[in-house]
Design goal:
Radius of gyration: 14 Å
Largest sheet: 3 strands, parallel
Number of strands: 3
InterPro entries: SGNH_hydro_sf
Distance between the termini: 28 Å
Helix content: 40-55%
Number of helices: 3
Number of domains: 1
Protein name: SGNH hydrolase-type esterase domain-containing protein
């Protein structure tokens, strides 16, 4: 009895594998969810937020550029696969002290 699903995923995939592989995984996930829940009314995906702190592996600019590219790719996939992008416009004060997680 699921009416809608909202995803908040891909921060780690984008950082570790890059936006192109992460978006492929998104496509597969959406396809699978639609198979498992054929009567679902709506799907949404939370756009990635700006990164406010560097990590051990990536600086903030590098992460932000990858997140921006992912969000652009996500827009294309959302149009093609008919789901909504949710831009929560999260700012630094909304983020965990790791600067990454809401």
């Amino acid at each position: 009895n699921v009416d809608f699903i909202v995803f908040s995923l891909c921060t780690n995939d984008v950082a570790n594998y890059g936006p192109d592989i992460a978006i492929q995984r998104c496509r597969h996930l959406i396809e699978r969810v639609r198979q498992l829940f054929p009567n679902i009314e709506s799907l949404g995906w939370l756009a990635l937020s700006p990164r406010t702190k560097p990590s051990k592996l990536f600086n903030s600019l590098e992460i932000n550029n990858s997140n921006i590219k992912f969000n652009q790719l996500l827009q294309n996939v959302a149009k093609a696969m008919n789901f909504e992008i949710i831009n929560a416009n999260l700012q630094q004060q909304h983020m965990h002290n790791d600067g990454l997680h809401p």
